[in-house]
């Protein structure tokens, strides 16, 4: 039977408990973080203020005047046990298409502007080329294909409002595209940039500092505080942990056309509802994902 | 209305904070020094989460357009009402046409000063709070610092407000603002990835706060924090002592490199992959937020039980002050 490692719990200050499900990233730890945090949220525990699923861990903020830290810790440990069986970790998800212009000129310009902060050796290499070479690719199209072929599981939100971490489902561990982070963060990142750091792909919702390698630009927003597009009617964010997004490579012309639809507020995202079986994913991996992708 | 004639260095609207959205990356924000902010509202008999102006080092010049009662608390500032100095930690009546000016205080300690007003500053909430968060695109005054020409609405004075003018906080309860600060932290989180020498070195060293500190984080230097030689966990991306990106507690003591530590404050970036020595207890975030650049900081390790005792003491003190000021 598949079993997850034992979770490490930490009291952090007087108001936080952080639970590390695993130190290494894997999809199963994220499924578990999602299942536990959903359960904690649904139980509406008095004194619990924030419930925050992260990539392979989660955080709970509480008011110790209302709930004892020790009682809450025991309670979380009990929930942890009930969610250690992969059969308990299925979830409802949606897959959303995100059109991306890979190796776009704005990302290239930012790569050059902040190249002194990047661990890469040559200043004239863009973040895209650097990440492509680090992963052993020489052909641009094959690298784009490798990054955009599989859906990415949304594993965590945060850093700043609406930023989304995502992790590819399907490739074997050694095939997962990875990148080094900047040694010192950029002071600026273009809004909508697609970045990679570690094994995670993110889209920057707003101009902000950042330390991920910039490899492309999303044509569509992932965060809309003013809720102007109809797909944002119920939420300021496009996706939640447990959702999937599928990057689709577009060229400059398509990128501009989609941008125009977004500006006119007529853009609709391509979406598919998915009942995600963590059990089937652990058992069948890539073939389960390929089946899910059919017709999308 | 309170009209902003000059905005000062960085003046924002803050309340008790924004909760329930951290998992989306929206930090709590809220007054950086909760104790001073809370006293400001207690003095006025306000609901404890009433919105106040938070002024940074050099305060604004404000024209009063509504007669009401105010209080000024927090970092020492020189406060002039129609060019005449008025006390801090005391309720003061102001009338239409008055001019309030905030300027540097000779004590040269502390960063944030609070201006509270009877009933609070009144503007629409964003995600359940009236706290500005400058790295957001929130509407109006909650997405930016105040600027000259801004008109900030104030509530109608509360019933009995004018009778409260002249109430003051006894001196013994006024917090000390200093350029040498002791803060307590619960050690742990990913500190097992730092060498034992690194952890004790951090506790035995004096840290000096750096210029680029703000409401997001306080940065400091002063000691070397060596990390254990560990293979980077799969997914972390490698680099100096990085872990798989996780959610950060407010108050987390992050180690981005061997020579620097960062303490996250109320406008924190909610997650990332730096290893962390531990977390500053909530009461002492006030002290650390009020630390000016070049302040020296000492960390003291406490257990969760000691942190809870400190929390109860703070609660008792606030209850006592509330009762005393009626």
From TrEMBL, chain A:
InterPro entries: CT_C_D, Cyclophilin-like_dom_sf, PxpB
Coiled coil ranges: none
Keywords for the protein's UniProt record, in alphabetical order: ATP-binding, Hydrolase, Nucleotide-binding
Lineage per the UniProt record: Bacteria, Bacillati, Bacillota, Bacilli, Bacillales
Protein name according to UniProt: Carboxyltransferase domain-containing protein
Transmembrane segments: none
Domain called Carboxyltransferase: residue spans: 7-239
Superkingdom field: Bacteria
From TrEMBL, chain B:
Pfam family, one: CT_A_B
Domain Carboxyltransferase: 23-317
Xref: InterPro entries: CT_A_B, Cyclophilin-like_dom_sf, PxpC
Keyword Transport annotated: no
Keyword Mitochondrion: no
Keywords tagged on the record: ATP-binding, Hydrolase, Nucleotide-binding
Protein name: Biotin-dependent carboxyltransferase family protein
């Amino acid at each position: 039977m598949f079993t997850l490692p034992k979770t490490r719990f930490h009291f952090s200050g007087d108001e936080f408990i952080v639970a590390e499900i695993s130190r290494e990233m894997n999809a199963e730890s994220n499924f578990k973080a999602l299942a536990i945090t959903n359960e904690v949220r649904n139980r509406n525990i008095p004194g619990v203020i924030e419930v925050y699923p992260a990539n392979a861990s989660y955080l709970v903020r509480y008011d110790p005047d209302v709930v004892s830290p020790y009682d809450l810790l025991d309670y979380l440990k009990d929930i942890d046990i009930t969610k250690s069986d992969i059969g308990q970790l299925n979830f409802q998800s949606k897959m959303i298409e995100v059109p991306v212009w890979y190796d776009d000129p704005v990302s290239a310009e930012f790569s050059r502007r902040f190249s002194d902060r990047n661990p890469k050796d040559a200043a004239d290499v863009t973040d895209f080329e650097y990440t492509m070479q680090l992963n052993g690719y020489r052909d641009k199209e094959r690298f784009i294909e490798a990054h955009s072929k599989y859906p990415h599981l949304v594993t965590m939100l945060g850093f700043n409002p609406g930023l989304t971490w995502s992790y590819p489902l399907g490739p074997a561990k050694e095939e997962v595209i990875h990148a080094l982070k900047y040694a010192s963060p950029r002071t600026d990142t273009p809004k909508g940039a697609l970045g990679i750091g570690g094994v995670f792909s993110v889209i920057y919702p707003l101009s902000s500092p950042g330390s991920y390698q910039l490899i492309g630009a999303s044509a569509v927003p992932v965060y809309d505080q003013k809720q102007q597009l109809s797909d944002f009617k119920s939420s300021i964010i496009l996706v939640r942990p447990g959702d999937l997004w599928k990057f689709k490579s577009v060229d400059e012309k398509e990128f501009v056309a989609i941008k125009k639809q977004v500006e006119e507020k007529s853009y609709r995202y391509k979406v598919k509802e998915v009942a995600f079986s963590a059990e089937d994913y652990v058992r069948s991996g890539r073939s389960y994902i390929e089946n899910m992708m059919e017709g999308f | 209305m309170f009209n902003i004639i000059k905005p000062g260095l960085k003046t924002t609207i803050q309340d008790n904070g924004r909760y329930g959205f951290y998992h989306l990356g929206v930090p709590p924000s809220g007054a950086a020094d909760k104790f001073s902010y809370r006293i400001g509202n207690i003095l006025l008999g306000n609901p404890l989460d009433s919105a106040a102006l938070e002024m940074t080092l050099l305060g604004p010049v404000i024209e009063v357009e509504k007669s009401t009662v105010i209080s000024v608390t927090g970092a020492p500032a020189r406060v002039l009402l129609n060019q005449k100095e008025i006390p801090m930690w005391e309720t003061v009546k102001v009338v239409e046409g008055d001019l309030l000016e905030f300027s540097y205080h000779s004590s040269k300690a502390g960063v944030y000063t609070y201006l509270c007003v009877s009933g609070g500053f009144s503007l629409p909430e964003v995600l359940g709070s009236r706290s500005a968060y400058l790295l957001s695109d929130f509407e109006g005054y909650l997405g930016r610092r105040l600027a000259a020409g801004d008109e900030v609405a104030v509530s109608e004075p509360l019933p009995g407000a004018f009778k409260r003018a002249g109430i003051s906080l006894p001196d013994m309860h006024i917090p000390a603002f200093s350029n040498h600060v002791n803060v307590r932290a619960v050690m742990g989180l990913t500190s097992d990835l730092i060498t034992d020498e690194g952890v004790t070195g951090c506790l035995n060293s004096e840290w000096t706060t750096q210029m680029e500190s703000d409401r997001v984080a306080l940065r400091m230097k002063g000691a070397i924090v060596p990390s254990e030689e560990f293979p980077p966990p799969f997914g972390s991306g490698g680099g100096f002592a990085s872990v798989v990106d996780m959610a950060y507690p407010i108050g987390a003591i992050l180690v981005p490199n061997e020579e620097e530590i960062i303490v996250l404050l109320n406008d924190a970036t909610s997650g990332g992959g730096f290893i962390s020595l531990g977390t500053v207890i909530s009461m002492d975030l006030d002290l650390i937020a009020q630390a000016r650049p070049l302040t020296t900081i000492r960390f003291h390790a406490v257990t969760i039980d000691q942190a809870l005792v400190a929390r109860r003491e703070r609660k008792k003190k606030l209850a006592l002050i509330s009762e005393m000021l009626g």
